[in-house]
TrEMBL record:
It holds the Pfam family HET. Residues 84-188 form the Heterokaryon incompatibility domain. InterPro entries: HET, HetReg/Transcr_Mod. It comes from Trichoderma gamsii. It comes from the Eukaryota. This is Heterokaryon incompatibility domain-containing protein.
Amino acid sequence: MADTLLKPQATAKSLGAYMIFELPLSEFHNKTQMVDISPLATDGCVRFIDCVALTTSNILRIWEFSESPLEEYSRFISWPTFKYTAISYVWRGNLASSENDSFENKFGYLTVRGAEDAEPISVNVLRAACFASLGDDDGRPYTQRMISRAEYIWLDQLCIIQTKKSDNNLQISQMYHIYKCCTQCLVLPGGLWRLTRLDEETSWANRAWTLQECLVPKYPMVLFAWTMNTGKLLGITSCWVREVEGTGGALARLKDIISGCLGKPMVFITRSIDDSSSLEYENIDIARETAFDIRVFGKDHADLYALRKVRLNFQNSSESTDPYKTRRCYSLIWQCALMRTSSRPVDMVFSIMRLMGVELNPKDFNENDRMGATIALMAMILEKSGSADWLGMPSKFPLCPQLSTFPQFARTDVSGGVNYSVLGHWRAGRSLNDWICADTSWNSEEEWKWQRLHGRMSTDGYLMFVRKAYRVSFASAEAIREAEYAHVFDWPLIGDMEGTLWKFQEDYDALAQDPAIMAIPLWEFREIHLEKGDQIEDFQFSISGIKLMIVKEQSAGKFYVVSYCFVADKEHKWRSRILDWPDYTFKVGGPEPLMRHQELADE
């Protein structure tokens, strides 16, 4: 019966593709072979690796479609039987460790001309990805079969002409579509040198492009090293694991693995994937050696919580063509992006622009011009009636001196984590992150008018908008003593994230010459409190509140951000209070003048 449910897949050749590269791999035992597709490849065309040829004949075969990417992806919609798997990985991942010294690559390695700075591609890993992509599409529901059979994979190193910048730019402009149209995405957290275990930390969640690669596909899966059978990991959440036979690897859903990185160790039970019987974590007596402390993306980090929320939002969103009709976790996307890095600073913008419904031309920016690209991205978001959702990012991050509405740009490193300069010292980004996240429980502006901030962005980096606000000043020593004595810090006092106390000036001298300091409400955030063993999604352990942005006047009509405050608002007292505040016109940026991208790169 299953066979009657299957439809034959269209092949690349039947749809007009040409074979541009072929390399037999059987003779390269533990050796490295150079791959160069440039002699026959055409700029701007999409290419795929043939999984069937690699798994059955040990031949690396690459097909190319002759049309431009834009034409091809519009055609993919009418090609429901053409399926491919996109690969998400890091160019410099986890090499062999003491536990993997015995690792043997039966079919050798591949290096790509023009991408010599990347680690060699293990043919074993490439074959494992192909076997996983071919799956076991026997007509069962997706929830049981884990993956849909796709006979081709897309992997940037082998499918982009690495020696031609022109092709690279064209492919970058279509990267969103490549992952959006794929049948599924396979995440290889540790790179292409070897498969990594679930208890090994990798840099995958620190890389810029992997954010888009895991959000836009319908079905992102993780491929990891595995020595057991198919079964189920049980903990606060459950996670099906499907062995990819003969590869030393297994598959699990990305969202489940992220959840595992946010909870206590899980235990593994061998179980058929179509077994519907229930299992309770508390009622199982499992040997200690079967416990898995999942940390492949890191452990208990706020950006992973944000990533999981965004992934669920993209997965469940019915909106696909106009991203500004509903709130789509944009604030959380910005928060995730701050924890990521790239070898090219400008890719920090290109890697998220389509997630924001915006498309910039890569040719317009130098590879070091992250500042110019960031301002252009902000301006285009606002031009499309989007909101300035980058405001209110984790408040321990130092602010950018030239663009105070945005955090300082992190130091970019192709292999390391994210680092920020704080008081002359480099600090790991995750040590500065906080658990105060934008609230994503609503999806329209009708609930509260001030949930979004619209405006315009000037070319010199100033955000211009009209917003309710209230004048504040530094709290006097007497006011602080009174609050400490009463053990109450409430209106008219608020404390910012750096410990400074501010007082709302209910009566102030309008003729005063001092620079104005204003508190501007943003939108609702939640402060997440995770106790050991708590369920991650449970808002019982969160505090709802509003973030306020403190800005100081630097010259007539121009302000810069000083800090942020978070005020709990369980009974909506602050919301009601804010609705009575007067409106002001703001121009917020600076305070320092913009620097050219060359100067920023030299810092």
